[in-house]
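Hi team,

As requested, here is the filled-out complex form for the nicotinamide-adenine-dinucleotide run. I kept the field names the same as last time so the parser does not choke. Let me know if anything looks off before we queue the next batch.

— J.
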Amino acid sequence: MINIKTILVAGAGTMGQGIAQVCAQAGYKVFLFDVQPESIQRGLLAIDKNLQILVSKNKLKQEELVDIASRIKGTETVDVPADLVIEAIIEEAEAKRKLFAAIEKVVAPSAIITSNTSSIPITQLAATLRHPDRFAGLHFFNPAPVMKLVEIISGVATEESVMEKLKLFVQSIHKVSVVAEDAPGFIVNRVARHYYVEALKLVEEGVASPEEVDALLRASGFKMGAFELMDLIGIDINFSVTSSLYNGFHQEPRFRPSRVQQQKVLAGHLGKKSGQGFYKYNKD
Ligand SMILES: NC(=O)c1ccc[n+]([C@@H]2O[C@H](COP(=O)([O-])OP(=O)(O)OC[C@H]3O[C@@H](n4cnc5c(N)ncnc54)[C@H](O)[C@@H]3O)[C@@H](O)[C@H]2O)c1
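And here is what came back:
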């Protein structure tokens, strides 16, 4: 028995929306929290739109959509009766730590608290918690409703029973879990880093344009080119992850973040979510 019925998803951006949808589709009651009320509204609308698409493809019945939507509630406070917290706010350790401190004050002692961080060490995030033993990484991939894999990461203090419950939880939302020890980038982001870093180097050195690199990568069998993928992920998030790995591995040159990418972040060209990244998007 995992004793999880209600989930607090903190952060209603790209990942929070998808995670909330996945959990509600699996039958859980979900509270979707964000510091920006408009993000909550955007998140709920995006989930509804995604579910409508499933209905139009006959993958979901209209009654099921109504049922799933009724299980997701927006909230402007973290003071909700959650058995599991999945944090998916911006990739900044300090912001996450402040949020965990607020959450720890209000959730039940039995609640499990997790972070969807792509690259901040779980042990570091756990260090300032009052109960680091109930804290772990729960790393979904983008888009969460589609991608099957979830990495479960234990910090040095994470209790084994928490890891076991999280494995059962991942199974219950019809995903596949892989357990990773706490290391920079865990497994997938460390392996994938070179896909982005080398593609950015090609552009920085003037060898090829983002369009040319992407076309060649797609022609060689990749589902998406590196630049399309960075636009989907969010260039700010991707840049933070590379910076974290670079610092996590004591400035190893092979993980050095790109100036081209940094400039995009400074310009606010964050990819699909901002309407412009390496490519331009219609914001609807
Ligand atoms: N984008 C990806 O492909 C991807 C994949 C896996 C994991 N992640 C991780 O998931 C997390 C979220 O990434 P995202 O792409 O969804 O980001 P995003 O920029 O799309 O959304 C972040 C959301 O967090 C909210 N927020 C910021 N500070 C907050 C706070 N203090 N309290 C509550 N909400 C706050 C923002 O208003 C925004 O709605 C990050 O840790 C990221 O590393 C991202």
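Two things worth flagging: The mean pLDDT is 96. The two ends are 42 Å apart (CA to CA).

Thanks,
J.
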